[in-house]
Amino acid sequence: MRLSGPTVISLAALASALPDAAVKRQVSQLRPSYDFVIVGGGTSGLTVADRLTQAFPNKTVLVVEYGEIQYGPGVSDPPSDSTPGRWSFSSLPNPEVNNKTAFVVAGQVVGGSSVVNGQFFDRGSRFDYDSWTEAGGREFESSDIKWNWKGIFPYFKKVRWSSLSPCEACFCLSQQHNPPIHFCSSLTPRQSVTFTEPPAEVAKKYGYTWDVSAFGGATPIHSSFPRFQWADQPVLWAMYKEMGLQEPKECAGGDKEGICWVPTSQHPVTARRSHSELGHYAAVIDTRPNYDLLVKHQGVRVVYAKKPQHKSSPPLVEVRSLADNSLFNVTAKAEVIISAGALHTPTVLLRSGIGPASVLKSAGIPVVLDLPGVGSNLQDHSGPAVSWNLTKPGTFSPLPKDMNNATFLNDAVAGFSETPARGPYTLAMGNSAIYVSLPHMGAPTYISSIITKIRAIAASDAKASSYLPPDHRTSPAMIAGYKAQLSTLATLLANPQAPSLESPWQSGSAATAFLLHPLSRGTVRLNGTDPLAQPILDYRAGSNPVDFDLHLAHVRFLRRAVDTPTFQKYGAVEVLPGEGVDDADDEALRAFVRAQTTLSFMHPCCTAAMLPEERGGVVGTDLRVHGAGGGLRVVDMSVMPLVPASHLSATAYAVGEKAADIIIEEWRKRRD
């Protein structure tokens, strides 16, 4: 495909009578123009669309989405034929980890990754979000728009935590589930109850704890504690207590160090997946005549008639039909908001001529804005798993292996269809995890040596640049931004209240070591032969060698499990790295990490970072693209400068909620 000047098909000539159906599937169904155009109908994009159409009933909003509306089964629902669309990516081989490739999945469906993710609905610690402001320096500290913990925490609370009477979700589930779910009649329609404690007997049985003050909300995005746990879940909990970890009552209120109960993004009655298409589209569309959703279309790029810095009006949005590959332009009168996700937002910008000049020129794309941070700063969680055998396994029941028993399996399937749902299919991927700070993992001198290494790199242009991708090693902005990030991460990792390691579990004989704050930085680039094809991911994991020091600290900590009284009682024997690997042998442990690391736990982010332009940033605190005038923003997980110590779904909703408030406040001021 040749990317040149603006396409010229006029929507005014094609739009005659709008159909009754809410979902649009062809250009002739669209309005001549829109006030807001959102490229990407995922977690953040639909959140923004919902809030804008609610706040401005006289302004029109169009969401352009590549996927279709599909039922989103939970990650551990009984097997079915329902498989929502997914993007599958394989990165370039990673030489630092035995040429492994990262495998990444993202939602290719209305609702985005909230429809296909693991449903683990946690938040980072307060220090994670404070670090965003610190990485931005004085410019961000002085900004009226705050993205620190105090600035973002209220937006986490706008997402409902656990309500037992939300007919918005009842209606959507009953319509989209096959067979239909019939339980709405017993509930009060469209209440906005925002928190209901788990049933007393369930809370007592599993020892659930929570703090209602951490939650709130007024949207039908639900998360809840499941009504089931495998029988050996408490064994691991006891083992971690013996390793010295604390048990905070609540880990969603900003303090997140210890053993945590984590909500799951599912309805508290049906245990069906809760996601943004249900909460931010299906539940509201009947009352939003100003809300259009165009499916099976790709937002290709934005097109400026003039240099964007000389023009305050928003660009055109070039859209491609997946049915016939035809191209047309959509006009936005107020703003264009790109919300295509951390792996696709950079490709939209790059195809638009917004990105690193050297990358654009090599792809034959005219440079509109030279922003080296576009498609840079790629981060994700990664790590190996420590595993063991319990040679005296006890009499735990039930366990996951019981799903091989036909009687148990049939009862599990039947239980999932009851109201309320019960049994193992309600568990999703589990809802317990440990979060451990670096100072709690080893001798102070050992931990101090890691922090010292990071600070030494942050203090040297030459050292910092040597760990960046080759095309950034001579970029003052990218070097300055990376040094600021390293300095921020050194402070974060030295904090005994800020987690460096996550290990989630529900059962089993392994502990995965999530590296929560990687130091290495990857890239997302256009396919040189086909700019509409899937982007090229280069994870570059381990390109900063201090990441291996962090991995080793995590592995050494988890290896202590086999020596705890609980595990000794059950005859624990380490399988990996294995009893033959000496804990003091750095090289042997590094070889284990290289061989066993999973390069992506499906949390890619940070590829259009919210940082000052002189630090390699792509957007400012108002999420406007640097230098693009007043009409172009980015709202999704690409804007995070640093990946938080959490799975990303809850943060994606919070970013969408805060972005919507920023946009609404600005346009209300203009109107006034």
UniProtKB/TrEMBL annotation:
Residue positions of the active site: 603 (proton donor), 647 (proton acceptor)
GO MF: flavin adenine dinucleotide binding; oxidoreductase activity, acting on CH-OH group of donors
Question: Which UniProt key words apply to this protein?
Answer: FAD, Flavoprotein, Signal
Keyword Signal present in the record's keywords: the answer is: yes
Q: Name one GO biological process term.
A: secondary metabolite biosynthetic process
Answer whether the UniProt record assigns the keyword Flavoprotein to this protein.
Answer: yes
Cofactor names from the entry are:
FAD
Q: Please list the residue ranges annotated as the Glucose-methanol-choline oxidoreductase N-terminal domain.
A: 341-355
The stretch of residues making up the signal peptide is 1-17
Q: What positions does the entry give for FAD binding?
A: 43-44, 109
- Mind telling me which PANTHER family this protein's record contains? DEHYDROGENASE XPTC-RELATED, GLUCOSE-METHANOL-CHOLINE GMC OXIDOREDUCTASE
Protein family = Belongs to the GMC oxidoreductase family.
Give the protein name, as stated in the record.
Glucose-methanol-choline oxidoreductase N-terminal domain-containing protein
Q: What is the lineage of its organism?
A: Eukaryota, Fungi, Dikarya, Ascomycota, Pezizomycotina
